[in-house]
Amino acid sequence: MRKIRRKLSTEGITKKQERITLIFVSITLMGLLATAMLCPTLNAFAQTNSSPETEKKDIFKVIMTVQGLEHNTGDIVTFVSVNGESRVKLFDDSKTYIHSVNDAGTGGIVEYVATFPNMTVKNGDVYKACVLIINDSNLICETGTNSPALRPEFKDMYLQQEERPATTSSQAAKIPDE
Fold it and tell me: pTM of this prediction?
């Protein structure tokens, strides 16, 4: 009989401890849930935990399109200058744009993306995009300004004789204050 009483009394104590533990865990979980719902600063902190190194920076790019190339245009050199730095590319007529020339021998096109990744270009800073036609040493330049938008700048150049703007000399190709 004593064994049965001891067994019943220990079972009762174990059940009471389980109930108390279950009640304690339930109350703790409810408290955590209520804190998470009622404290918006914790949610905001958890969502905006980015360091300055991971923030997206604007890389200055100019996408330059040269249109109006012909079979007899020859090689061209494109370059973009901003804040004293330049990016340059040579386009070989026999390999680069000859396939885009139509049956009439006109309409060739090239695209050049000048990228300046390690430089700060402020809104409103002036850049210059130029095309040098090697055959006749003709330099055609246009200027643009950096916009506040987080996107590349676009510059279209046209080489057809009737649409060709006045050419500039190599001295005029410099950006002011260089």
Answer: 0.56
Helix 40-47 with 2-38: angle, nearest 10 deg: 70
Supply the range of the domain harboring residue 113: 60-158
> Domain tally for the chain?
2
Contact 98, 108 (CB under 8 A): yes
Cα distance between residue 98 and residue 71, in whole Å: 7
* pLDDT tens-digit profile, the chain (178 residues): 556 555 556 666 677 777 777 776 677 766 666 666 666 555 455 555 444 454 556 689 999 998 888 878 888 899 999 999 999 999 887 666 666 677 676 777 888 999 998 888 899 999 999 999 998 888 999 999 999 888 899 999 998 654 444 444 444 444 445 4
Q: Can you tell me whether residue 111 is helix, strand or coil?
A: strand
Q: Please give the helix or strand (H or E) that residue 133 lies within, else none.
A: strand 126-133
- Asked if 93 and 72 sit in the same domain, the reply is yes
